[in-house]
Structure formats: structure tokens, C-alpha cells
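not sure who needs this but someone in the group chat was asking about HMG domain-containing protein from Gymnopilus dilepis so here u go. i didnt clean anything up, its just raw.
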Amino acid sequence: VGSISTDEASYAAFVDSVLSAESDFWQISRNLFVVNGWNKESKIAMNTFYHLQMVAVGLKRDCHCLCPDGREGDKCFHIRFIADYGDERFPVDHRMSEDENKTVLFSRNVLQYEPPVYHNVFSVKAFGALTSVKARSIVEHSGEDSGLGTWKCSRDPKQHDCCHISAARDSLQQHVQLDLSAKDVNGPQEFHSGTGTSIPVFSFLEVDVSVGNYVRDAGSCAAAVSFKRIPPPQWAKLSSDPVRPCIPPVHQAPDLIPLTSSSSCPCKPDGRVLYSAASESRVEPCEIYGLTRMWKSKIELQNCPSCKRRFIGPDGQELGLFNWNNRVLVSHDLLDDYTSCYTSSETPFAAWTSVMQRRYQTHGSPGSFLSEKRFRVIWFAYARLLELDNDMCCRKCGPTPNVTIWDGVTLAFSRKNLKPSLCPPTTIHPTSKIRSKARHPKKPHCLEDPCLRKILRHTLTGPQLRWIEDGEVPDDLVSVDEDPSDDESDEISQLKAEGRAAAARYKAAADMRSRLECIEEIVSRLGRIDASLARLFDRCYGLDNLVRGYKAPSAYTTLFLHMASEDSVLQLMTFSDMEALDRFIKYPTFENASHLNMFPALYTVIMLELSKGTQPKITNDLYGLCRWILLRCMTVLVASITECGGEKDGVSTSLKDDWQKTGCLYSMPQIRNRPQYPSIHRDGLSDIGGQAKRGSGCGKYYSEYGQKRLTGGIMVVWCTHTVCYGFHCIPAAEGRNEVFSAIYTHWEKAPEIIIYDYACNLAPYLMAREPVFFARTKCLIDHFHSTGHSACGDACKLKTYVSSNPSLDRINSSAAECGNSGILRIRKSVSYMTQDHAIIYTKVFLSIRNRLILRKQEQRKN
């Protein structure tokens, strides 16, 4: 049957180019657009930009386009696109500005990653009395964020320092610095404000809508003609994947791609128009792109009865082809090749398409490879259909691992791309429960007296306690390393070394006497709490015993230091530990004592005393300490419980692919909404940037996670075998709320161990909100990050538990760091993506990474 006219074919190619984001079509205000030029003969987008103004008069759109066709009065494709697709692509949006007196940075693309070089395009209001759309200019910049590089103005192409470029320079700095008052200091100053020239207010992209200017593009949202679910690549398949017919690689293009019963048109948002055997068909030319070349072929199509220009076309999966738009088809092995590359090493789209261009030239392809923009959109349409399911569960840990490792990753996209659909677990739902009574317990420490905690730490920290007389300076109290200087004589060096050693000994002796002076006060203060505490401390560190030369085992020192820490007593003991201690108090046997290994300080002391003598028995003082510390833990826990909590909500089952919009995907379904805790200060808000002080101060910083122009990245959870169990996008900076909300909303039962690099403050955060749900959970800092928590107690560090729990030593506590090091390969690419693309790109990366690990597990098992 006949073919479409040349003009209609060019318009159809133009629409495809716009919808695939290959040709720019930006809306920068309610009535103002910026569009790419279009070559009707070659059917390709040009590297020129034009303004288009649209004014709605009733139901009619009055448009004026400054492209050559629009100026000459011919039928302009841009105006026709507004008429055909304006309602679909540019629906009414309150975020669109009505102010057209702004300089707008509407397009920003990476030209080079190291060092970073960008291509920025601005729409600049001209200076003077003329205010029509003709008065605006397009300014392009290729260079660094400092403003260095090449500047070009559409109105003054021969000038490199006109007023339009000056305005764009300032706009770039406002965008980079997120400061509306920022000015460019590298360019000419004659056109800057303050020199008598009227400069309009500038706007930039990557800020909140209330501050900056919102822009949107018509492209990147079109669905492909192919719609069947696509199985994973052969090298990433799992034994648990559904059995599907193998997709053949494409070595030679077919002469004709025929219609089949599954052929369809993607024009309907809620479904597809399917092939009808009773309707006529037509044959049109198409292009097929493979791994080494492009082929020209024919495709059988059928007019779609439901849309203006699209056709019903074949899916192509049985031929190994992905049908993008009935004119461009791409082989599955080509698309899988990019997936393999970017999940193995840092491979941005621009770099990969450059490699493919050269490969096509090497193999003598009759046509060049796809542009970066077009390939990017086709790959994302393909990735949406990939059947990467059931790959976020470790075969060894099962669906709900007892040990989870959490970490925030600086994998963030621009804030300008944030959409209302983003819905992390921290979101408060209208039906969320309100826990108005929940609050932080007062004085949750093991020892309530802050002065006692301070002098205990002072007394027991440092060299082992020993008795020294007044004025005595023992030579062996401290050692000083020799540090002779090369330019000094041996005699002078010796004298200086002796002086340093003497000073160090005097200081050490003074410190020791200061510590000894605190012992009687400590015994007195402990006695007011419980007599057994005072007796045990006096037995170990009493002055009479020290005078006799007694040296207590270091295990007692560790126990008292843990009790004197600024951590909550619930960090020392979970409810499971309390149950174990209660059993031991009733029946103090070796077997019952062995279950106290998650309180290693107490466990070590008990085992030490049980091992003495012929009869396994602990002293009355230690027995009294056990009873007291159990009572103290139960008191704080009961005081923390204001409501039972943990009940499931009637959360509606999400659609299978909702994660592509919400940015939240975990292997477990959501079963609760995050409650509200109005009595807890700043609940639900991001943790304040900078040093998060707690007690004497924690050295952990949150500011490293959230850069001003980017979202906060993603929160990822791993098992100890580095399998990712899920992730969610963080709209702002990372905080404890991310971990709390993700676990509470998705885990039916809280994990026994949470490893997180901010666990010192995560534990009280959890217990203040849901103490019943997290009563059996221990929060620990992994080995890698422990060194940065010098001010935090040892009870919140994983290394403390290894000696009494050999199984914990096998935990890959830095699994998150291992996973993050892989994720960083895609950080640069993601930082310039839209929200939808960033989420899909991240999900595919994590799924492929998981699958490669799970395949190794299957191979070992076999």
C-alpha cells in the first residue's frame, strides 16, 4: 500500500526526534519556548536555537516562531507540534513562571568529565525598549563553570563581550554558586549591574522552584513500539528467572520485519492499540542498528485508528530487535552491550557512543551510529522493560537478613529534576499514625550521674592504675621516643632527650596522682547507687589494694568504662540480652553465661570469675552488679515505651513498576507508613549539616552527603555478602530518618544487627520512636568508620564484639563500602540525569551487580 508524503515523513521524523530528546523543545516560561532548528530534507536536528512564543486565546493557541519557516510564513513544524502535542507534552503547570524578563539557563550538558567541561545554553532578554520575543537572544557557552571557555551570542555573533553574554555569565555563576547576587569576575565588567546598565533578575535551573526558574523539555517520555518484557542478558540470568525463549543475536538484518499478532501502537497512556488482521498494512523503510553496523530494511506497518501519526508495528523481540518508533530498531545485543559496559566500568553515554561511531567506521557501516541523545532515550525505553526481578535477595541470608549494612551513597541527580512522584519511606502519609507520647527518655545512661561518668572515665583511662607516693616520679611510668636532630651534636641531643623524658615522667606522675585522688569519690558515688557496684570497684581499684600492688584484670576496667559511657544503656543491652541476663541471674551457669556474648564487657568478666577455682561461681559483688544493671536496663526500656507500635498499616499494594516513579525499591513490600512523632524535636526533618554533637561530640559529618545543587543521593542496604536488598532516593541530605523509615516501613521484624557509619546516634533515634519494634536490635559502626568515632563509646563499635562473637568477625562489615565503590562508577552519569532516568539507571546497575554475585553463589552451590 502507498507510503506517506515527503513532508509528512519529515514531520514524523521531527516528532520522533523531539520525543526522543534528540531535538530540543524547551518551555522556559508559560508562554515562551526555545526550539532546535530542523532540516526537512535530511530529517535531522540542527545546532541552532530559536525562540517560540505561544499565547492562548480561549481554546486557540496563537504561536509565533522565529525559525526560518516561521519567519517566512510557511507551515512551521514547531508550531504544528504545539498544536498536535501541546496538551500532552506541556500540560498546565503552576511551576512555570509568567515572568519573561529573565535570563534562563535552560540546557546544560557534559562535554568532558575530567576536568569538567559543560555546554550551557541561555535564553537572554535583550536590553532596551523592545520587549517582544524577537528581542531575546540565545547565548551558548562551552567551558568550565568558572566562565572560562567559548561564548557565542545569536544576536551579536561577532562579539565575545556583548551585554547578552555578560548577562549569561552572571546567570552561570548564580547557577553554580546558588546565589542570586553572584556575578562573574572573569569577563568584562562594563555590562554588569552597578555600571549604569539595567540588568534584569536572573534565574537558574538547579534550585527550588520558589527561588529559581522551572523549565521542562518535551522529550524523553515517549514509549517504544516494543512492549514485551525483556529477559536479562544471557550472562546475567539466574536459575530462578522465568523460562523465556532465547533472544537471538543479530548478525544479518531481515529483508522485511512483518506484523505479528502482538504488534501494537503505544499511543494510549493506559494501554495499546493492537494489530487487526482485517485492516490493511503498508511497508515502509527502516534502519536497524547492530553491534558493528547499520542496515536499511523494510518494516510492515498498519495505520493506527486511535492516533494522528503513529502506526501499529511489530515488537521484534523474536528477531532480536527492539522497535523504538517503527523507523529505528536496535538489536538487543547492542543494548545489552552498553549495559555490560556501564555496570563493569565508568562508561557515560557520550563515551560509549563515540566508541560505537568508530566501530561502525571500522566495519564499513553504510550509516553512522545513533546520536548520544537518541541512543540514551532508546536505552532507557529498553531498560524499563528489562525483567530484572527477584534479584535483591541473597541465597545465603534469605529474604530478611539478620545483619543489615546501611550506607548513604553520593549518587545524586540535580534538584531541578525532582518530581512530586518521588516518595521515599520517610514520606508522611495522610493515614500515618501519630505517636504523640513518644519522646527521648530522660537520663538513659547506665549511670545517671554525669559527674560520676566523667570521673570514672578520667580515672580508668590511661596507663594501668598503680600506687605512687607524693613526689615520687617512677622511671617506668612513661617512655619517651628518642628524636635526635641531625644538625645537633650527640651531647646536645642527649641533653634534650633527657629533658623531654623528665618532663613526660613528671606529667605522667601528676596525672596518675590526679586519677588516684578520684577513687574514694567514685566509691562513695557508686555506693549511693548500689552497694555491690561500690564493693566491686573498691575490690579492683581501692587504694588499699593498690598500695599492696594489686592490679585488676583489664576486663573490669572495660566493664566500668562501658557503664560510664555517654551511650544509652540500651546500646549496652538489647531486650534479648536482658532475657539472657535474667536467665543467668536465676541460674548462673557457664551455658547461660555464654548467651551474654552480645554484652562483651560483662560477658568477659563473668567468664573470668566462673573460670576461677574448682567450682564455677561468680562473686556476690558481680552478681549484685548483674542484678542492678538488668534493673537499670528494664527501667529505661519501660520508660521509653509509650505505645506498643510495630502494627501493620493497611498500605495499598503498589504497582509492580511504581519504583520507577517513587524512587523506592526494596525486596520486601511496604507494610507500614512512617508514623509522626510530634513531641520529638525536628522529627522527620533532615539532620542538621556539620558536626552532629552528642554528649562530648561525635566526629561524624552529614554535610558530605548532600551537595547544594544535588539531591541527597541514595540510601542502600546490603547483606554481609554485598548483595543489595534495596534502595531509595534521598531528596535532601542523608540522615538517621532514612534508615529508620526504610526498616520500619518494609521489615516485618527488625534485623538483629544494623551496621551503619552513624550507629552511635541511630540507636537512640530508633528507641525513642519505636522501642518495642527495635528492642532486640543492636546498632554498630563498622570497622572502617570506627576510627572516625573517637568520642563515641566502644559499645556502638563492631570491633568490640568480635572477640566474644567469632561469627561477627566473619561479617564483611564494609560490604557497603565495597558496594559503594562500584556504584561510584555511575555517579557522574547520574548527576546530570532526570529523576526517572536516574532511578532506572541505578536499579539496572544494582540488579546486574546482584545477579553477578548470585550467579557465583549458584556456581559454588552446584
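also Residues 450-640 form one domain. if thats useful
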